[in-house]
């Protein structure tokens, strides 16, 4: 019952760690990612990584460097599974036709 609200809160914190402001994300895209992540049993960090992979081409180089440092820290934790990380790198997730930025 409270899984999605808590997931959204944790996702907000993970996006903040990556330097992505949630206000710039398209609400429809964000809802699709949350639905997909909850359905597939992903962690909020994995969902944030999927969002980052989608919006990273639009970030400036300094933001990318900072975000990649955070991702390196996450990779040694159990919150970012290697299988999900590889799927994100291959572009398999998120699978959305909605533009990521508002």
What is the compact description of this entry?
The protein is an all-alpha fold and 102 residues long.
Keywords:
0% strand; mainly alpha; 102 residues
Notes on the protein architecture:
- The chain has 102 residues and is mainly alpha-helical.
- Helices cover 64% and strands 0% of the residues.
- It contains five helices and no strands.
- α1 (3-18) packs across α3 (44-55), α2 packs across α3 and α3 packs parallel to α5.
- It is globular and about 35 Å long.
- It starts with a helix and ends in a 13-residue tail after the last helix.
- The model has no long low-confidence stretch (mean pLDDT 90).
Chart the SSEs and their pairings.
Elements: H1 3-18, H2 27-40, H3 44-55, H4 61-75, H5 82-89
Give, in order, the helices and strands.
Answer: HHHHH
- Describe the oligomeric state of these chains in a short phrase: single chain
Largest sheet: none
Large-scale geometry:
globular
State the share of residues found in helices, binned by percent: 55-70%
Distance between the termini: 28 Å
Mean pLDDT: 90
Using DSSP, what is the number of strands?
0
Enumerate how many helices there are, as a single number: 5
């Amino acid at each position: 019952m409270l899984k999605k609200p808590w997931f959204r809160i944790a996702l907000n914190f993970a996006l903040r760690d990556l330097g992505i402001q949630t206000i710039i994300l398209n609400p429809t895209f964000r809802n699709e990612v949350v639905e997909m992540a909850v359905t597939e049993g992903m962690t909020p960090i994995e969902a944030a990584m999927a969002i980052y992979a989608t919006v990273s081409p639009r970030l400036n180089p300094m933001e990318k460097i900072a975000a990649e440092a955070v991702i390196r820290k996450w990779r040694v934790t159990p919150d970012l599974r290697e299988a999900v990380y590889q799927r994100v790198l291959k572009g398999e997730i998120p699978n959305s036709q909605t533009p990521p930025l508002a």
